[in-house]
Amino acid sequence: MQARPVAPELAWIGGHRGLESQVVPETGIPFRRLVLRSLRTVGLDIDAVLDPIRLCLSVPQAFAMLLARRPAAIFTTGGYVTVPVLLNAWLLRIPVVMWDGNYVPGRSVRWTARLARCLAVSFEATCLALGGRRPCFVTGTPIRNPGAIDRTAARTRLGVASNERLLLIFGGSQAVRRFNLAVAEALPRLVEKTVVLHVTGAAGSDAAAAGRDALPANLRQRYRPVRFLGDEMGAALAAADLVVGRAGSSTLAEVAAFGLPMVVVPYPHAAGHQRRNAEEMVAAGAARLVEDDAFDADALLAAAAILDDPAQCAAMAAAAASRARPGAAEAVAELLLAAAERRPLPPAKALDEISRGVAS
């Protein structure tokens, strides 16, 4: 949206507990927080009692925020924290565009979807799961522009030689411990095969650094542990030859956009959303699936062995690229602007072409 010649004014409403309070202000987008927390408590603790109270308090708070700004439209990903905003948007007749990236939408998304003017999703089956109450478009998952990142320049920036293979191991923002343990055990054998860029998270950083220092001196530079990649994730994906990671919607979309083979280890909780996310990539031949409880050093070494088979790598990469929707963000923006301007929604075929990057 901000890249358009006449960029609309943006504002963000979020909650407590999530990462948005750290990430959003850095972009220059005004940020307001509700009393409600971004992530709902699922255990039996004091927050299980306080969360309904926070929800009630957030309804008039969201009403005041929307009344003050009178936005032309609202974009949301549906979750629990959006309930006060979407209830008030319905009262104030503010059109809502909702996007959901999971194959199986969560309960909050299924409930709040009825308050949206239209829906954008990453999987066709998600439209069916949401009941067909609103216009639903398969746009894919909005991601960074892969065409803006040159592979050769990315590998130079990361210090990866042209004749070396790069394995990117990225467990997402949560539940990376299993990945870190597998890397630690496999590391001496792994770096003999490939250069390894390993996103450890904060908790695994010190152990990973110690593991690197324990390697023979001539192999240490082949292991690159980092806490987080942030803006460098695009360069890492552009430089990589194989990815081992979770099955979040954004991860799968970026791997496809960069045309990379993948070994996917779905996060086993959260109602199994990630496994369903991954299954289409696996069925297309773009990824190999390893269950979370089976992912260990041997499984990681078996994953790295894909790099020894150029034909298999090329076939998986081509399958990944065939599923790419690099223009997903543009397609969603088209929906949002149509809603904001009270225009008819774009045709599904036009949005499909935009999302796949084939629109003229």
Please explain how this structure is put together:
The chain has helices spanning 20-23, 46-69, 83-91, 107-112, 124-129, 151-158, 177-193, 201-213, 233-239, 249-257, 273-283, 297-304, 310-322, 328-340, 348-355, and strands at residues 12-16, 31-37, 74-76, 96-100, 118-121, 136-138, 166-170, 195-199, 223-226, 242-245, 262-264, 287-289. By secondary structure, it is of the alpha/beta class. It has a 6-stranded parallel β-sheet, sandwiched between helices. A 4-stranded parallel β-sheet has the order 3-4-5-6, with helices on both faces. It has a two-stranded parallel sheet with strand order 1-2. The longest helix has 24 residues, at 46-69.
In short:
By secondary structure, the chain is α/β, with parallel strands linked by helices. The chain is 43% helix and 14% strand.
Uncertain ranges: none
The dominant shape is: globular
What is the CATH class of the largest domain?
Alpha Beta
- Average pLDDT across residues? 91
Task: Record the SSE blueprint.
Blueprint: E1 12-16, H1 20-23, E2 31-37, H2 46-69, E3 74-76, H3 83-91, E4 96-100, H4 107-112, E5 118-121, H5 124-129, E6 136-138, H6 151-158, E7 166-170, H7 177-193, E8 195-199, H8 201-213, E9 223-226, H9 233-239, E10 242-245, H10 249-257, E11 262-264, H11 273-283, E12 287-289, H12 297-304, H13 310-322, H14 328-340, H15 348-355
Parallel strand pairs: 1-2, 3-4, 4-5, 5-6, 7-8, 7-10, 8-9, 10-11, 11-12
